[in-house]
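Recall that a protein's primary structure is simply its ordered list of amino acids. Everything else, from secondary elements to tertiary packing, is in principle encoded there. The following example makes that idea concrete.
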Amino acid sequence: MSCMFSVVCRFVGFSRGGNLWGSLNCDDDDGDDCNYDCDCICPPDCTDESHRTKMVDAAVLEKLEAGFKKLEASDSKSLLKKYLTREVFDKLKNLKTPTFGSTLLDCIQSGIENLDSGVGIYAPDAESYSVFGELFDPIIEDYHKGFKKTDSHPPKEWGDVETFGNLDPAGEFIISTRVRCGRSMEGYPFNPCLTEAQYKEMEDKVSSTLTCLSDELKGTYYPLTGMSKETQQKLIDDHFLFKEGDRFLQAANACRFWPTGRGIYHNDNKTFLVWCNEEDHLRLISMQMGGDLGQVYRRLVTAVNEIEKKVPFSHHDRLGFLTFCPTNLGTTVRASVHIKVPKLAANKEKLEEVAARFNLQVRGTRGEHTEAEGGVYDISNKRRMGLTEFQAVKEMNDGIAEIIKIEKEL
């Protein structure tokens, strides 16, 4: 045979880092009678077409070809279109991830269906980041401002939690502040590959952990399955209830078995919230009215550290904390404010210029793909990779301080 199969052992967790393409060599030509307790798969640089074409069936290849042509002919501004060249497409279209069999179509189908996507790609499982690295790596580098495939994300570092204070003590501009992070549970794939049983198992682990939290974090877990109309309305009124995924997540096949395994936890003060199995396995959110970033940040750090004692999180040495969307990799931290700056809002170009200087993202009031309501913007840090958690939040802190300063001067 003209290639040596690389071995990817099921029991060597990708979440613990390392090279996906193993150093062992399978001695079986077709992998059917492999002597190792493993999955055998050709590496991306395999030139033996007979090995590669076995991996993806004709129907998937047909959809991929049609999707690529649709994307190529469109005026899409997505990072997917920017980096999915014919050369890259041809190199990746016949590959599957070893454990869950995810294809290139699983990664790009949302961006193909939604040509207005900003990014257009998701990772159906952790291995996708390596198997389809020739596409993910340049997109990650572009989005995360130069995080190259040779770079490694720094270790987790929350820094001195007493550093941050109140960005708007007079309450003139900032309506609310929140800091959130995403986490994937070690040992489980991402949404498109999860079974119904795994959803239930994960929810059991999460709910039992959260209901043991104490002091300021003490609260209640509400499963979406079997939720009463009264509870549902209460969570809607508090703006806590998440709905089944938007068209971007739906197209990425991220909403299977809905609402099984999904739920919401919030503390008694309604300043700490956890979403279970929405886009990521866990979304941990600390929030409150006003501009006291310090209080919000300290609460989140305490919560993450407590939960991690019982629920191990998926982490990779190079990519940091692993998530479904590549925009959230690394720290996964998003620190944001809802802020009203009417003078800068009248000069959106100036607002965007200041935001870009501090690597901030300006979005509509209700987040991505929405408009600003009443001149209120959602402004957050954009960078999540190649810097620490503390540094990511500090970029938002410094940028918002500058935006408020300019607004006062106009």
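The CA atoms of residues 186 and 314 lie 4 Å apart. Residues 1-42, 48-54 have pLDDT under 50 and may be disordered.
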